[in-house]
Amino acid sequence: MDLQIKNLLKTFDGFVALDRINLTVEEREFVCLLGPSGCGKTTLLRIVAGLMPYDTGELLMGGRDLGAVPARDRGFGIVFQSYSLFPNMTVAENIGYGLKIRKAPGDRIAARVKELLDLIKLPQLADRYPWQLSGGQQQRVALARALAVDPSLILLDEPLSALDARVRADLRAEIRDVQRRLGIPTIMVTHDQEEALTLADKVVCMNHGLIEQVGTPQDLYLRPRTRFVADFMGSSNLLPTGWVRDAMPHLLPGRPDGAENAYEACVRPERIAVAPAADGEGRVIDLTFLGNIRRLRLSWRGRELLAETHQDPGVGPGAAVDVSVAAEACAWVRA
Ligand SMILES: Nc1ncnc2c1ncn2[C@@H]1O[C@H](COP(=O)(O)OP(=O)(O)OP(=O)(O)O)[C@@H](O)[C@H]1O
């Protein structure tokens, strides 16, 4: 079943938190809501969950209006940022809770709990209590609990944000794997662009209660349509039209029509090629070693540019370099 969000408006005392949002979550799709603090991600997720009312608009699940359906009857699985396991229940009891309140028979609950413990790769922890688990384990149990009732939609509110980088990366891969296997449509809130790029089929980039752009991770990274999206989805060189006309005229043909200040060229740092050249016009300002990449700040034709390379560029600060950008490396964005 798909979820359709139509013209959804949410205000708090006149403040517009969601400004007529339109969005479809297709069957089997993993959608990430991405954006800075306060852009409305959590509000949207809570409204879909049924935990918060909205002003106007429509929510349809498989064509059925959810407006009058209370949270507990929506049949959605929810995982929050903070581990929200019941502290006085074991892992198995936590996972089986939803089935128990639906009065499922004991043997069915036990079988389902076992299946889910295997799925989250924690079969040996059934009898532990939440306080005896690491943060990553607790979030896996929270995921299993959300899955236990065969939800028609999974809602994840920054489920990884309290975990350290390594656990986060592992669990991220597991969530993706489980979601793919089960094919349950999923909405996840995050402010971490890397997380959105690795997990999502569709990324929804939000800003001030509006959707700036919706697309695949590739769309948003390679073909951002606004300066905000370009900036939020990784680092970029944002180059004014006037400068491009003088310094990189070969980028101009892709520019949409519009006033001089209406568009800027977005060139990702890895698309700037740098080569040592004694008579090169560019100068290396500094170079930072970041393990898998090297980041160079360059000065070239009156601007500072950011370049990144996987190879050792063979130059240091002060060195003269040639700088080039392929025409197709540029996306024109609304400034
Ligand atoms: N109960 C409320 N009363 C008044 N304003 C609220 C309420 N809940 C949220 N807001 C406001 O609505 C806006 C969106 O909040 P929301 O929590 O959805 O943002 P977010 O994108 O999830 O941010 P974060 O990443 O910080 O959680 C914010 O400006 C927030 O202050």
TrEMBL record:
Positions of the ABC transporter domain: 3-233
GO cellular component: ATP-binding cassette (ABC) transporter complex
BP terms from Gene Ontology: quaternary ammonium group transport
GO molecular-function terms, A-Z: ATP binding; ATP hydrolysis activity; transmembrane transporter activity
UniProt entry tagged with the keyword Nucleotide-binding: yes
Keyword list, A-Z: ATP-binding, Cell inner membrane, Cell membrane, Membrane, Nucleotide-binding, Plasmid, Translocase, Transport
Pfam families attached to this UniProt entry: ABC_tran, TOBE_2
Record has Ribonucleoprotein as a keyword: no
The name this protein goes by in its record: ABC transporter
Organism, scientific name: Azospirillum argentinense
